[in-house]
Amino acid sequence: MSFPHRCTDSNSKPFQCRQCGRSFGRQDVLGRHLRLHTGSSSSTKDQNPTPETGTLQHDQGQSQGTPTPAATTCLAQVESAGLSNFPEPHNWLDSDNLLEWLMSDTNGNSTIPLPLIDFPGASSASEYLGLAVPRDLELAQAPQGPGNMALSQIYKLIDDLSRRLNSEVHHSGFTSSFLDACLDEFFKRVSPSFPVIHEQTFTLQKSIPPLLLNMVALGSLFVCEEGALEKGEMLWRLGHTAVATSWQTLIEIRGPWDAYDGVQLVLTALLGQTYALLSSNSNIRTTASVFHGLGFYWARTSGMYNVSEILPEDLPTLQMSDEEKNTAWRSWAAVEVQRRAILGHYILDGLISQASGSPASARHLINRIGTACSDEAFAAPTADEWIIEMQNSAKGQPISEAFAHVFSSNYATNPLQLAHFSIFVIIEGLQSLISDLHEAKGQVFGTVSKKQIIQAMLNIFEGNILPRSEASNVHHLQVFIRWHSVFIEATAPSILIYRWLCSQFNLPQILGGVHAKPEGHLGEFDLHSWAAKADALRATLHAISITRILDDLPLSQAYTMHIPTAVFTSAVVITAMCLLNREVIEVPQKYTWSEVWTSQLHESASPDHEIIEEFLEGLNPNNGKTMVSISLLGEINSLQIILKTVASRWGVSAQMNDIIGRLADIARENLGHSVLN
C-alpha cells in the first residue's frame, strides 16, 4: 500500500547546507551536519525557536538549512498546525498529515536510515560508516582481514534492518484514520488511568515522533479493527528502535515550554516500557526490565530532577488577561508533566520489580521530587478552572518527606492530602522495600523492617484510601487494588509461588519478563510450608478482596496498567491454596485490615511460625463472629472472566488466563484427592 505523500518527492533531499552545498532528506540530519562547521553557533544564535513559534528546540544550527521548494508546502502545513499556543484537545482528529508527520522518512526508499538515528554529519547510518554501503561485489573484492570482515557485517546488519523496517511499515496498511483512532483511544482509555500527558495543552506537532509512536501503540490496544494489535506492536518497535539508536539526539531536544532538555525522551521511555511490560510478546516484555533504568539515568543527565514548584503568590488571578493566564497554565503544565514523567518511572519501577522478582532500580525513599498536583488541577479543561483548583489545592512536598509522614505512628489521624498519582508513587515505594526484604531473605543493615512496612501500608489505607471510599470516589478503587496486590507481596513473592506451581506441574514459565528456568529460581521457597502459615490466608483474603473490587469497578476505570498483574497475582494465590486441598475456606463475615495484620505489629510477633488456626482465632475471638464459606474455585472462575473481559486489552492477559486456566483444570480434576504429597 502506498502512503499519501503530498508534500515532497520521497526521493528528494530538500534541505541544503548553505556552507558546503550538501543536501539532506531531513532537517534534523541537516542540523547535525551543521555542527561540523565551525562558527555556526554565533551566526544563528538569534534564530532559535521560541515558545511562541510552536516548534521543538534542538540545536542552533538547524535554521541555517534552506529547504528547497519541494519541502516548503509540507513545512508550512506542519508549522501552521502548531501556530496556536492553545489548541483544542484532539486537534489532530481528521488530519491527513498525521501519517506524514510520523513516517515522513519511510516513504519511497528501499533502504532508509534508522528513525532519528544519531550519526553526526551523515544523512544515514551507511554514510556515517562510509560513503555508501558497499555492494556485494565490492565486499567480495575487499581484503578479508578481521577488521574488514567486521565492517562488512555491520554494513549488512544496518542495510538489512533498514530494509525490513521500511518493508514492514509500508505493507501494513497504515492509514491516517487508524492513527487518529489510536490517539483518541489513548486519551480516552489510557491517559485517565496513567495521567502523565497533559491533554489540554498537548500539541501533536510539538512532540517528537517516538513519543507519538508509543502513544499510538498504547491506543491501538483499544481500537477494534482487524490487525490493530499487530500494527500497534510494529509502531512500538519503530519507536523503540528510534530511542535505542538515537537517544543522544533525543535527549538534547527541548519542547517549547519545557524547562529542561530530554523531557519528551523520558516520557517516551515511560510509555514505551508501559506497553512492553504488558505485551503478549515475552521478548518485548524483557525490554521493560532491560531498558527501565535508563529512564532514571536520562532524567538525571538532563537535570530533570530539579523540578520547580509554583508558589501560591505566583498563580495568576482570574482578572488577568486570557493570554497571561494561558501562558502561566502552559508553563505550569510543562513543569507538572516533567514531574510526572519521573514519578511515572517510579510507579513503573515497582510494577517491574514485582513482575520480575528483582529489586527495584531506584531508591524510592530518597526521591526529592515534589508530590504531584491534585487530580482536579491536572484535569482542569481551561486556564480559569486550573487557577481555581490550584487555589484550593494543598501545598506539595518532596516525596521523601511524604514517606517520612507515612511511616509515622499518627499518620492516620493527620494524613497528607495526596493526589491518586502520588498515592501510587508511595505504594510502589513500599513495594520496593518489600522486594528488598525478599532479596535479602531477612533483616539486613539499612533495610526497613516488615513491621514498619505493614504499619505504613495500614496508614495509607486509613488515611488516604478509606476516606475516599466513604466519599464514593470511584478512583480510589484503582489505588485499593494495587494496595491489596502489594500486601500480597508482603506475605510471599508472587513470582515464586507462580514458579513453584509451574515447576510442580510442568507449565512454561513465560511471565516475569523472560522464559525462566526452574533451577535456581525458587531458592528455599516451599509452597507447602507457606500454605500452612497465617500469611497464606492473609494473601488469600487480599486476593478475594481484589475480586470483589473488580466486580464494582466501572469500565472506565478498568484500564489501569497494574490490573492484569493484580488479577494474575490473586489467581495464583487462590489457585495455590486450592491445589493444597483447600477447596473452601471459612472466614469471618466482617473484619478489618488492621485486625488481619495486627499480630504482625507486636514486638513479639513471629510471622514464620504463626499458623492459620491461630490467625483465625485472632480474627474471631471467642467465636463471636459469623463465619462465611468461600469457594476458591468460584473465585478463580471470576478472575478468569475478568482476564477475558476487563483486562483483555492488555496483551499479557491472554497468557495469564491460559496459565490460570490450566492450573484451575488441575485443581478441578483432583478435588477430593491429595494433589501435592
TrEMBL record:
PROSITE patterns xref list = ZINC_FINGER_C2H2_1, ZINC_FINGER_C2H2_2
- What Pfam family is a match, any one? Fungal_trans
Output compositional bias ranges, type Polar residues: 38-69
What is any one GO biological process for this UniProt entry?
DNA-templated transcription
Domain C2H2-type: from-to ranges: 15-42
Q: Which SUPFAM superfamilies match?
A: beta-beta-alpha zinc fingers
Q: Gene Ontology terms, cellular component aspect?
A: chromatin; nucleus
For molecular function, the Gene Ontology terms on record are:
DNA-binding transcription factor activity, RNA polymerase II-specific; RNA polymerase II cis-regulatory region sequence-specific DNA binding; zinc ion binding
- Where is it predominantly found? nucleus
Tell me the protein family, please.
Belongs to the krueppel C2H2-type zinc-finger protein family.
Protein's name in the database: C2H2-type domain-containing protein
Organism field: Penicillium cosmopolitanum
